[in-house]
Amino acid sequence: MLTSVQVARFVASGSLRLDAVVPPGMNEQAVAVLDAGIPPVPYGTPLAEAFAPGSFAQRLTSLPVVAGAIRSLVGPGPTVDHHAVHVREPHQGSAQPLHGDAIIDVRPDAFDIQLMYYPHEVTADMGGTLSVPGSHLRRTNETDTGRYQNLRGQTRLVCPAGTVVLLHHGIWHGGRRNDSDTPRYMFKIRLNPTVPQVRLWNTDDLGDPRVGDELRTVFDWYEPAAGRLEVHNRVLLWRALTGDDTFDVDHWVTRVNNRPALGSNA
Amino acid sequence: MRQQVLILFLANSALDAEVIGWSSYDGTGRTRPTTGDGDEPPYGTGLDALLDGWRLIQASQLIPPHPGHEYDTSFLKHEFIFEKLHEEKGAAVTDA
């Protein structure tokens, strides 16, 4: 299970990266499995029923570190929204435009996650996924962000084989141009929660001051003014995820909600 | 005449503010910029682009938030669009 500090980092950045957590034996099988195709799964199929026992996808999502992260973020019994195999072919002419998946999705107290699995090492020129940390709470729709080619502090994924990245549904991302001679594979599964996403992780460290430190993180591409709003909005999400309506970071939410009633002594 | 377009997203509404995002489109066909092709901005500030000969052709308006949406974040606010023009002489393209 994830810790509160790890979940706070996810709330701030919109992603959680698990390097080389899939064993080499599975990674060696993966490309052939992905080339053969993963059988389609109807929307809303419970994850526990979506993939045949012993199948690659079932083993991937059952790895303890992966299963623990999934359960910490979307809880027990998530359903599969959809899955897809993405291949960036060698020397493709262009990258995907920066986008959020599906449609604009501004749920204040719930989120889906997208599991992205990279079966082989992704080097700098292989078109690893571009993602923009801290973009997941922006209210934008799909490829309307396509005008943004590069943002300071963006993440151009370079990772060892067997890496899994879990993304908040709203994160801005895109497959980059593959300038290498090797196809770049990625297997994605979108998962929907079926329970309220409240204290689903190991909350032993809920009072750790590093929780606030994570939620204060500002990214290099933020305008400073908007960065303050991002922290405000993360506090609201953290309140929803913890059920603690008094939580705050540096008084951002408390201050703008302070409306003493007439006749009070406040 | 061919146009190169540079879009800089700045940290605040001042043209000499720091660059936080950038995009470019090359009407000369010499280069093919695309999403995620670099981590270092071409200029430190919008003013630096002017000093290098780019002409500002559009800047974002300052628009107050819609009532009830004061805390929402969405697109980058401070977008500045620049151009450079290049004359074609025969097959060659030279700076105008």
Summarize the structure.
The complex is a heterodimer of chains A (266) and B (96). Chain A is of the alpha+beta class and 266 residues long.
Quick tags:
heterodimer, A: 266 residues, alpha+beta, Jelly Rolls, 2 domains, 3-stranded antiparallel beta sheet, B: mainly beta, 5-stranded antiparallel beta sheet, 6% helix, elongated
Largest beta-sheet characterization of chain B: 5 strands, antiparallel
Low-confidence stretches of chain A: none
Rg measurement of chain B, Å: 16 Å
Please tell me what the overall shape of chain A is. Answer: globular
Biggest beta sheet summary of chain A: 6 strands, antiparallel
Strand content of chain B: 35-45%
CATH topology heading of the largest domain in chain A? Jelly Rolls
Radius of gyration of chain A: 19 Å
Total number of domains of chain B? 1
| Oligomer class | heterodimer
Structural class based on helices, strands and sheet pairing of chain A: alpha+beta
Description:
- The complex is a heterodimer of chains A (266) and B (96).
- With 266 residues, chain A is of the alpha+beta class.
- Chain B has 96 residues and is mostly beta strands.
- Chain B has one domain.
- Chain B is elongated.
- Chains A and B meet through strand 6 and helix 7 of A and strand 1 and strand 2 of B.
- Strand 6 of chain A pairs antiparallel with strand 2 of chain B.
Could you give the topology of this structure?
The complex is a heterodimer of chains A (266) and B (96).
Chain A: H1 4-13, E1 15-18, H2 24-36, E2 45-46, H3 47-50, H4 56-62, H5 64-74, E3 79-88, E4 113-118, E5 130-131, E6 150-151, E7 155-156, E8 163-168, E9 173-174, E10 184-192, H6 209-215, H7 224-242, H8 252-256
Helix pairs in contact in A: 1-6
Chain B: E1 2-10, E2 19-26, H1 46-51, E3 55-59, E4 79-89, E5 92-95
